[in-house]
Amino acid sequence: MNEDRVLQSTPVWRTFAVGVGSNLGDRRGQIDRAFELLAGTPGVRELRRGPLLESEPVLPVGETTPHPDYLNTVFGGETCLGPRPVLARLLAIESGFGRRRGPGCRPRTLDLDLLFVGDLRVSESGLELPHPRMWSRDFVVTPLRALFPELGPSETQVSGDGGGVSTV
Q1: CB atoms within 10 A of CB 154
Q2: What is the DSSP letter of 99?
Q3: Residue 114, domain CATH
Q4: φ, ψ at 73 (rounded to 5°)
Q5: Is 152 helix (H, G, I), strand (E, B) or coil?
Q6: Which residues pair with residue 75 across a beta bridge?
Q7: What domain count does the chain have?
Q8: How far is it, in rounded angstroms, from Cα 16 to Cα 148?
Q9: Are 18 and 76 contacting, i.e. CB atoms less than 8 angstroms apart?
Q10: Is 1 a domain residue?
Q11: Does residue 67 fall inside a structural domain?
């Protein structure tokens, strides 16, 4: 057996995390189904989820449209996929729930944000890893730390601009 061939076909598995939110429709049901869909994705294994949190929407300055509260969590596991294929899968799952990305901040059935893939650093159009605001949102930090307690900055570096957060 050719040893080089075996080494080349061995996938590299990296830890990854996804910020999850929903503020329209059956929020819990949509999050549960998104978890099932992502867990069933080839190249994803050992997917887990952090605690569910209820949070107030974080709106851009000047946004006056009323937004319902969010249900948030984080999914985390391992993937042998690169960041772009993971992002493509997340966008496809969102789309299946009727999410249409566009300008402005609108309520959403499902929001899936890729937070990190291993220690990869990416800064491209439509993709920045690690996610630039993940440590500044309580509704991300709390479930992320539940899944990956060894990650991240100290408590003093969390800005707390994530709005009011309560455990569901």
Answers
A1: 6
A2: -
A3: 3.30.70.560
A4: -160, -175
A5: coil
A6: 18, 49
A7: 1
A8: 10
A9: yes
A10: no
A11: yes
In a domain? residue 4: no
**What are the tens digits of pLDDT across the range 30-52?**
999 999 999 999 999 999 999 99
Buried/exposed code over 29-48 (b: 16+ C-beta within 10 A; e: otherwise): ebbeebbebbeebeebeebe
Alpha-carbon separation of residue 8 from 55, 78, 117, 127, 167 (angstroms): 45, 19, 20, 27, 45
pLDDT single digits (tens) 75-133 = 999 999 999 999 999 999 999 988 777 656 677 889 999 999 999 999 988 898 999 88
The domain containing residue 89 runs over which residues?
12-167
Strands (E), the chain: 14-22, 44-49, 53-55, 70-79, 111-117, 122-124, 127-129, 165-167
Query: What is the greatest pairwise CA distance in the chain?
Result: 65
Contact between 53 and 139 under an 8 Å Cβ cutoff? The reply is: yes
